Amino acid sequence: MCEVFGGIAIYTWLSNALREEYDTLRVLKESPRGSVRLIRHKVTGQRFILRHFIGNPEVYKKLLEYTCPNLPTVYEVASQGEENLVIEEFIEGDTLGFLLKGALFSQEETKKIVKQICQALWVLHSIGAVHRDVKPENIILRGDQAVLIDFDAARFHKLEAENDTQILGTTGFAAPEQYGLSQSDLRADIYAVGILINVMLTGEHPSRHLVEGKMGRIVDRCTHVNPQRRYKNVLRLMEAL
Predict the structure, then answer these.
(1) Is pLDDT at 3 greater than 70 in this prediction?
(2) What residue ranges do the domains of the chain occupy?
(3) Whose CA, among 109, 114, 195, 235, lies 20 to 30 Å from 188?
(4) Which CATH class is domain 3-89?
(5) CB neighbours of residue 179 within 10 Å
(6) Which residues are catalytic?
C-alpha cells in the first residue's frame, strides 16, 4: 500500500481504481453499516471481496502483515474518516451456515474444522485481536480447508478498558461479556467456538440441547458464563479436541 500518499489520498486512489478497473459481480451483503461485494478485475479476471463499511479498520490493517491458510489474505485497506474500503481474497466455497441447512457434521468432521478455526483464531489472538463474531455464516469451507472470514466486529483487546465500547456480535454466539458486562478478550471467541461445536453436532444451541459425552464437556467448559472457567486459550481447546 502506498503509505506516502497519506490516508485520504490512498482512499481516493483506491476508490478511483475500483471504479475504473473492476466490475461488481454480486452484492453479497448490505446493511446500514456497509456492504460486501464480489468484484472482478477487468483485465486479469481475478475475483476479490470488497468491503465498504463504517467503523474501525484496525484489525484489517494489522492483517495486511500476516498470511494464514485459515484466514483470507487482506490486500488493501484505505480509510477516510469512519469510512473504510478493504480488498481481500475471495474464498470460493460454501459457508457452514449453508451446509448446516442440509445436514449435521460428524464428530471427526467437527473436530477437523474447529481445529482449523482455532488456528485462525490463534493468529488473531497472537496480534491482540478478538474476532467477536465466530458463527457458521463466517466460516467458509474451501475443499477440506476451513477459513474464518469477516473482521468487521473484530477489535484489539485494550488492557485499560473495563468493557467494550460498542456491542457487536451475533445473538446466541456472543459471550455474555460482549453485552457490556466486561471487556471481551480471546475467551469470548472460545465461548463462540463452544456454541459452534454444539450447533455443528446437534443443530441446537447448548442451552436447548447439549451434545453428549466428551464433546458436551468441551462445549460446557467453552461456554461457561465466567470467562476464567473457560479454556485459557485456543491451544488448550485444540488439545482437548
Answers:
(1) no
(2) 3-89, 94-240
(3) 109
(4) alpha beta
(5) 14
(6) 133
